[in-house]
Amino acid sequence: MDATPQLPKPVANADSQPYWAAARERRLLIRRCSACQQLHFMPRYLCPHCWSDQLEWVDSKGAGVVHSFTIIRRAPIATFAGNAPYVVVMVELDEGPRMITNLVGDDALQVAIGDRVSVAFEDRGDGDLLPQFQRSSA
Ligand SMILES: [Zn+2]
Fold it and tell me: Which residue, 13, 47, 77, 107, could crosslink 33 as a Cys pair with Cβ 3.0–4.6 Å?
């Protein structure tokens, strides 16, 4: 049985709507503060560095390294039970911001800190794509 359609779909709010719209186009967006030039993730209304509301969207290259990870062997809710074991990673993007995401792919369980990773868009149905990451082939 394919569990993918039962997985949660992205729920956009006013702060994240452009992020999810770009994901549908297989683009990974992060935010840059026009006041202090710092980049950040996750999407939010105010810059977490200087509290400015002068933010813009920029395209990430979608590449980075595994900063940390954990392997989930017992899913916290039944929806994800079919995916276990699966890998939750903190990816440090090459642009600097860190993202908590899932590592997908056949070799995900061989993950190590420092692995190069790249964005992979997981189909959640109806055109919704969820930015996830996969190990990069050297
Ligand atoms: Zn700022």
Answer: 47
The average pLDDT across 104-122 equals 97
Distances (CA, A) of 135 to 3, 60, 106, 115: 22, 17, 9, 7
Q: What are phi and psi of 23, to 5 degrees?
A: -60, -35
94 CA distance to ligand 1 centroid (A)?
A: 19
Distance of CA 35 from the midpoint of ligand 1 (Å) = 5
Cα separation, 65 vs 18, in Å, equals: 25
Other CB atoms within 10 A of residue 43 CB: 19
- How far does residue 50's CA lie from ligand 1's centre (Å)? 4
Task: Tell me if 89 sits within 8 A of 117, measured CB to CB.
Answer: yes
Strand partners, 98: 92
Return left, alpha or beta for 62; rule: phi > 0 is left, psi -120 to 50 is alpha, else beta: left
Q: What average pLDDT does range 46-65 have in this prediction?
A: 98
Q: How far is the CA of 30 from the centre of ligand 1 (A)?
A: 13
Provide the pLDDT for residue 5.
43
Measured distance CA(39)–CA(133) in Å, rounded? 19
